[in-house]
């Protein structure tokens, strides 16, 4: 028996040993499967961007290291099988390998915030244990694999948002454990699947930012666990289903930016836990149901831009004590403002916007009891009467106050000027009286002031000049008088100034030249007199200028020729005399020029604006001739005005003898100089003269002193054929000295080419040459110094940040410079190397193009195309250059477009994320127009998006602006040259974009 028992024990041991061996062998097979799957993923998705991420994956993901220790990989504690795979924000590129489906124990997969492209593998639906799948913020395209929605019973959370996914949502949804679904910000179409209602565990649904159509399924009301429902920014129609009232746990409901109709269902009053309700930008009618007051936890209520009518429930504020933002603008709501007084119960209220409705009544002193946190109070465009209550002084946090377009009367209470944080004040289009008090100068944070169309009288207080941050000032259509205070012209940040239709007197002073940033000036219908100030010529950012209906006299100053950007110019109804200056024909962007009712005489110029001008723009003058299309009399061939004749007589009688004597003296002196120079040339070494005839000549020794013997400490940058140094000349002038390396092949030819080119061009957006220094062993160009250095440094510096408006201004400056080189210079000049390092910024952040004269070509009369060896930098170079070697202005347009896209995205075209399969243009084009917010430079979002928070459409405004900017960049970078824009077409589009930004 003992023997048999021992045999049984041995047999059992052998069986167990065999099972263990089999298990070990199986584990080894499974291990090799996981390893192969991970290596396949590594091969399919390359890592780019941050070098640290790249090094970690390359160094760590090797077959000789256990994959359970690889970065991003976590294995089960029981067996060496992958259960978690997290490589989020690793700058991964390439595609997602379908072999990931072999990770059969995987429960967590997170690859979000990378640059992965291609489609989502259908095989991911075969992962039986996968609970969380995060692929958002990539560049994935194609349709959503149906297997993910109907074959993954373990899935709890899925996020595919912010990609380029297209097609419809899967109609069959079998996700028994699902709690969160997000496919927002894609390109999805079709209807919302009713099958979602079968997912009884759903808590969060994000479908916003697509192109979904149809109605909101009533079956969604069965999702009793739902907390978040985001269906906004689609194309949904029909009425809001009453079944939403069944979602008693709902906290966030976003249905904005759709085409929904019908009324707000009273069943929404059942949503006792609702904290945010967004119904804006629809076609909803009816009233705000009183049942909605049951939502006592409401924080944000947004119903703007609908067709709502009737009064607002008077107890709204008492019922919603946690309310922070109330937005009802753009409806037809009526009745009184009792509900505003009830908002005193909302101690965290910071945004109140009820503008563009039909509210009546008066503003109560009780509004001073509103939250001390209130920052935005917008009640404009209603039917509000009475006075502005003094109690508003209690709203000490107020940033923006708009009461315009009402029927307010009386004086502005003095207490209003104690609101020191106020940045925007709109009181225009009322019946306010009195004077503008000097205390307004204490509000130093004000950026926008509009008091237009009231009955204010008296002077503009001199203290207004203390508001150094002021950008917009509108005092039009009042009864203001006296002279414009000189302090006003010291507001260097002013962008828009409207003082029209008042009673201002006096002259335009030379101090107005300080308004370098101004783009809009309207001084029409006043009593201004004297000559039009030549200082206006310094306002080179001006787009709109109206000086009509005043008493200006004298001739139109020649300095106005420098208004390169002006589009609207009205000098009518004055007493201007003399001839119409011909330079008006050279102002490229003027679409409206009105010179009517002056005392102008002589020939009407031809070209550009005069080819489109109407007779009403020139009528009422004394003796104009020419322009037969406008039925003016022809000019006599020997037309000489009386003033001109007398001038010539004086010239002949008094000046001519003196001139003759001077000419004789100069002739003798020149003979002497020539003889002396010939002797000097023979005696001295053959030193080459400067290539440009500038008044100032700078010797080598002064440049050496200026740059501390060309010290590395003064080095600004290195180029392909030399170095650039910062220097201070003997008279203190700061300059940039470009010293050529004469050992580089073609350097001498480049120097000569740059001299010829720079000597022929003059434009405010091109770097100005001051002098040259040249001998047999040294050649240098002396250029104006740009204190803000290059655009490249601003884009990629940790300590500097450009706002969206600054970026637009820079590209507008660059486009104006290129427009000059391509279309306005007598010879077409091609830059051939547009890139950020060749864009320099002066002290006012005005952009100047540099290096446009080095080894470049010139096309005579736009007819010839020349080949050159220097056709740009990789990434910015037009694709046709590599095929034909020929260069045209369309190559510059392509480089400009790439530069433009770089400014918007903050990505270099040679970024490691771009390769032969995906370049910058394709990447941007894939995101345009629906996902532009995903590719924009984060610095823009941090600055401009924050600034737009005060606007109820802030995000939409920024998105539209970015889309219009990107559209220009994409049109400039089309593959075929003949499909690209010309720079003369780019400039007006950028100006329109800039105007839109300024308005918003």
Give an overview in words.
This protein has 1000 residues and is an alpha/beta fold. The protein folds into four domains: 31-212, Ribonuclease Inhibitor (Leucine-rich repeat, LRR (right-handed beta-alpha superhelix)); 436-644, Leucine-rich repeat, LRR (right-handed beta-alpha superhelix), CATH 3.80.10.10; 680-785, Phosphorylase Kinase, domain 1; 788-999, Orthogonal Bundle (Transferase(Phosphotransferase), domain 1), CATH 1.10.510.10. The chain is 24% helix and 18% strand. It has 18 helices and 49 strands. It has a 23-stranded mixed sheet, with no helix packed on it. It has a twelve-stranded parallel sheet with strand order 19-21-23-25-27-29-31-33-35-37-39-40, with no helix packed on it. A five-stranded antiparallel sheet has the order 41-42-43-45-44, with helices on both faces. The chain is globular, with a radius of gyration of 36 Å. 41% of the residues are buried.
């Amino acid at each position: 028996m003992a023997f048999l028992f021992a045999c049984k024990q041995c047999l059992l041991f052998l069986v167990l040993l065999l099972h263990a061996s089999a298990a070990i062998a199986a584990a080894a097979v499974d291990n090799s499967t996981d390893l192969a799957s991970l290596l396949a993923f590594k091969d399919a998705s390359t890592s780019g961007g941050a070098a640290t991420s790249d090094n970690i994956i390359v160094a760590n993901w090797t077959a000789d290291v256990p994959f359970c220790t690889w970065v991003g990989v976590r294995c089960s504690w029981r067996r060496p099988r992958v259960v978690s795979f997290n490589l989020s924000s690793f700058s991964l590129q390439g595609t997602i390998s379908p072999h990931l489906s072999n990770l059969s124990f995987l429960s967590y997969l997170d690859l979000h915030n990378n640059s992965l492209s291609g489609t989502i593998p259908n095989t991911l639906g075969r992962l039986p244990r996968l609970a969380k799948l995060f692929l958002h913020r990539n560049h994935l395209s194609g349709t959503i694999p149906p297997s993910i929605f109907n074959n993954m019973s373990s899935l709890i959370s899925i996020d595919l948002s912010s990609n380029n996914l297209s097609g419809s949502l899967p109609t069959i949804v079998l996700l028994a454990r699902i709690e969160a679904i997000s496919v927002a910000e894609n390109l999805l179409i079709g209807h919302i699947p009713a099958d979602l209602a079968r997912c009884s565990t759903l808590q969060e649904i994000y479908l916003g930012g697509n192109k979904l159509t149809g109605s909101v399924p009533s079956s969604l009301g069965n999702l009793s666990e739902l907390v978040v429902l985001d269906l906004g920014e689609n194309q949904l129609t029909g009425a809001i289903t009453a079944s939403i009232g069944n979602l008693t746990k709902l906290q966030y409901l976003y249905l904005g930016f759709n085409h929904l109709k019908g009324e707000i269902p009273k069943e929404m009053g059942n949503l006792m836990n609702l904290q945010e309700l967004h119904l804006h930008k629809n076609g909803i009618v009816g009233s705000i149901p009183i049942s909605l007051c049951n939502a006592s936890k409401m924080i944000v209520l947004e119903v703007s831009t609908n067709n709502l009518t009737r009064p607002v429930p008077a107890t709204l504020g008492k019922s919603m004590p946690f309310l922070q933002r109330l937005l009802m603008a753009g409806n037809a709501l009526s009745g009184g403002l009792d509900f505003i007084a009830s908002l005193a119960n909302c101690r965290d209220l910071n945004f109140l916007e009820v503008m563009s409705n039909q509210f009546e009544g008066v503003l109560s002193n009780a509004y001073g009891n509103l939250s001390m946190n209130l920052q935005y109070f917008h009640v404009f465009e209603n039917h509000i009467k009475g006075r502005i209550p003094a109690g508003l002084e209690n709203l000490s946090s107020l940033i923006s106050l708009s009461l315009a377009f009402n029927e307010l009367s009386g004086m502005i209470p003095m207490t209003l000027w104690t609101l020191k944080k106020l940045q925007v004040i709109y009181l225009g289009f009322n019946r306010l009286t009195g004077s503008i008090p000097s205390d307004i100068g204490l509000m130093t944070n004000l950026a926008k002031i509009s008091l237009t169309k009231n009955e204010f009288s008296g002077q503009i207080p001199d203290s207004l000049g203390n508001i150094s941050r002021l950008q917009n000032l509108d005092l039009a259509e009042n009864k203001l008088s006296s002279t414009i205070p000189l302090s006003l012209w010291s507001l260097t940040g002013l962008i828009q100034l409207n003082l029209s239709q008042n009673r201002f007197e006096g002259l335009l002073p030379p101090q107005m030249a300080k308004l370098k940033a101004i783009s809009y000036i309207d001084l029409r219908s006043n009593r201004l007199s004297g000559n039009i100030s030549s200082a206006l010529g310094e306002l080179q950012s001006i787009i709109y200028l109206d000086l009509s209906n005043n008493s200006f006299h004298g001739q139109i100053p020649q300095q106005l020729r420098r208004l390169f950007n002006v589009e609207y110019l009205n000098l009518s109804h004055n007493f201007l005399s003399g001839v119409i200056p011909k330079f008006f024909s050279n102002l490229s962007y003027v679409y409206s020029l009105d010179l009517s009712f002056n005392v102008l005489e002589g020939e009407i110029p031809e070209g550009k604006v005069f080819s489109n001008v109407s007779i009403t723009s020139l009528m009422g003058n004394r003796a104009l001739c020419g322009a037969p299309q406008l039925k003016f009399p022809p000019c006599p061939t020997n037309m000489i005005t009386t003033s001109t004749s007398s001038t010539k007589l004086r010239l002949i009688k008094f000046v001519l003898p003196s001139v003759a004597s001077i000419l004789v003296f100069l002739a003798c002196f020149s003979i002497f100089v020539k003889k002396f120079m010939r002797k000097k040339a023979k005696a001295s070494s053959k030193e080459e003269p400067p290539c440009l005839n500038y008044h100032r000549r700078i010797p080598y020794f002064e440049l050496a002193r200026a740059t501390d013997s060309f010290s590395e400490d003064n080095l600004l940058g290195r180029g392909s054929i030399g170095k650039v140094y910062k220097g201070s000349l003997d008279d203190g002038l700061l300059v940039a000295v470009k010293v050529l390396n004469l050992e580089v092949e073609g350097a001498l030819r480049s120097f000569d080419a740059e001299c010829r080119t720079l000597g022929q061009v003059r434009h405010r957006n091109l770097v100005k040459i001051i002098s040259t220094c040249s001998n047999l062993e040294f050649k240098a160009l002396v250029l104006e110094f740009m204190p803000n250095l290059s655009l490249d440094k601003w884009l990629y510096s940790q300590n500097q940040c450009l706002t969206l408006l600054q970026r637009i201004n820079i590209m507008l400056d660059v486009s104006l410079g290129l427009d000059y080189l391509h279309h306005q210079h007598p010879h077409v000049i091609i830059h051939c190397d547009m890139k950020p390092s060749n864009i320099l910024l002066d002290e006012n952040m005005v952009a100047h193009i540099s290096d446009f004269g080095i080894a470049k070509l010139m096309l005579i009369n736009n007819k010839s195309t020349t080949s050159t060896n220097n056709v740009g930098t990789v990434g910015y170079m037009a694709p046709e250059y590599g095929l034909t070697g020929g260069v045209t202005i369309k190559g510059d347009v392509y480089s400009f477009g790439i530069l433009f896209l770089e400014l918007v995205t903050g990505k270099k075209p040679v970024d490691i994320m771009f390769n032969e399969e995906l370049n910058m243009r394709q990447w941007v084009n894939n995101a345009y127009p629906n996902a532009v917010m995903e590719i924009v430079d984060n610095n823009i979002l941090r600055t401009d998006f924050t600034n737009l928070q005060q606007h109820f459409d802030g995000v939409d405004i920024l998105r539209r602006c970015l889309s219009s900017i990107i559209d220009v960049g994409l049109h400039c970078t089309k593959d075929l040259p003949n499909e690209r824009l010309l720079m003369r077409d780019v400039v007006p589009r950028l100006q329109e974009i800039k105007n839109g930004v300024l308005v918003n």
